[in-house]
Each structure stands twice: as C-alpha cells, then as structure tokens.
Specification:
By secondary structure, the protein is of the alpha/beta class. It has one domain: Alpha-Beta Barrel (TIM Barrel). The chain contains seven helices and ten strands. The protein has an eight-stranded parallel barrel with strand order 1-2-3-4-5-6-7-8, surrounded by four helices. The longest helix has 15 residues. The protein is globular. 41% of the residues are buried.
Length: 239
C-alpha cells in the first residue's frame, strides 16, 4: 500500500470519463452536485459512467448537503440507494456518518459497511473525518469494521501536510489515507514527504458564452491539463 501511487478524480458526467486511464487516473469518485461537496448519484448516471470506463467507480452515498448527522429516514434512504447502486457495476461507495456530538456513528457505519461488503463493494470514509471528534479513535474503529480508505485534507479546508502526517502516523499502513481538497501537482511533493501515496481531486472548469437572462448557458468541461500535471508529479515521486 505504501509504495503504490493512486489518483482518483471526482466527476459528475459520463462524458468526462473517456480517456481518463490514458491521463493516469486510477479510480473515479462519482457524485451528483459537486458544488455541494458531492451527493448520491442517480441509478442512470451511475450506469452510464460504469459503461463508459474500465476504471473502478466509487459512488458517493450522501443524501443531502450540510452536516454528516443523518436521521433514521436519511440512513434508510442511504441503504436503499446502496442497494440500487450496487446493481450498476460500481466497485465501491464513499460514505461517512457522525453523531450529533461529532463522534463516529459506529452503528450506522458498521451496518453500511456490512451491506457494502455483501455486494463486494469497497468503502471510502469521506471528509466527515476532517470534522469528527477524536479522529484517532475514529480511524481505529474504521479499521476494525473494515473500511478501505479515508479521504481527508488533514483537518483543514485545503490539504495540510502537517495534519496528514499526524493521520499517517496513526494509520501505520493499516488503512489507506487519501489526500483531497486542493490537491494539484504543486502540493504533491510536500504530501509525498509525509508518506501520502493516494491523491483525490476534482478537475473541471466552467465554460459559458456571454451571459443571458435565463442562466441556462454553459457547461462543465474536464481539466485535462490539471489531471495530466497531477499524474506526472505523482509518478515522478514514485520513480
């Protein structure tokens, strides 16, 4: 785990999948509404993305924007979404749940992890980790229940090598630590120095003609330059 370099790209659209492998991408995180930090994708979106690539696709399991304390109804919805999305060919889920006090919702995370494994799906615990209380204990529990990796910025809005160094020292290669939020080619060397070998980013930009009064013009386009630069920097440090 320690020596393997992995790059994951978060995206919303099937048309942004083509050619990602050639750009050096290893995995896709599929979401709706990346502007809100990523929400659960639809069955149709997941099906189309999986059909468009040979890369493993991990689907976000998050019913709404905002905090990570979910009601029993929201948790039930998440489990239903997991069941439906498991039929699309995804390879894993991205999920995180906390109590109202900011601790890990161990009961629900154990349940959702068990359900995911029944469908042979991997599990990433997302950036709920960055706002939880007692993160060292949370990390140990995530290992115990069989979570595959943690996506984290190191407790800051953008990736912080010092915070990630602390997390890496807790993890001791027992769970993959993936750096996300503000990851680009420029920050790779500092992340490499603290032992990070897994990188996550959103690589897109908004393209629109002149504004019109309805606001319906424009589209998201994939930022191939950012992806290529990140992949080159990551491969270089592993050489």
């Amino acid at each position: 785990m320690a020596d393997r370099i992995e790059i994951e790209i978060a995206l919303e659209e099937a048309r942004h999948v083509e050619g990602l492998h050639a750009l050096g991408v290893d995995r896709i995180e599929l979401c709706e509404n990346l502007a809100e930090g990523g929400l659960t994708p639809s069955f149709g979106r997941a099906r189309e993305v999986v059909a468009a690539t040979s890369l493993p696709v991990y689907a976000m399991l998050r019913p709404r924007a905002g905090n990570f304390h979910y009601s029993s109804s929201e948790q039930h919805q998440m489990l239903l979404d997991l069941e439906i999305l498991s039929r699309t060919g995804i390879r894993g889920i991205v999920v995180g749940a906390l109590t109202g006090e900011g601790l890990l919702d161990e009961r629900f995370m154990t349940l959702v992890t068990h359900k995911a494994k029944q469908h042979n799906l991997g599990i990433t615990f997302h950036r709920a980790f960055d706002v939880c209380k007692d993160p060292e204990a949370v990390l140990q529990t995530l290992i115990d229940i069989g979570v595959e990796r943690i996506l984290t910025s190191g407790f800051q809005p953008k990736v912080d090598p010092q915070g990630l160094a602390q997390i890496m020292s807790w993890a001791k290669n027992r769970i993959q630590i993936q750096a996300g939020s503000g990851v680009n080619a420029e920050v790779v060397p500092s992340l490499k120095e603290v032992g990070v070998r897994a990188f996550h980013c959103t690589a897109r930009y908004w393209s629109a003609p002149e504004k019109n009064p309805f606001g319906f013009e424009g589209e998201w386009k994939r930022d191939n330059e950012k992806i290529s630069a990140l992949a080159a920097a990551a491969r270089y440090i592993s050489a």
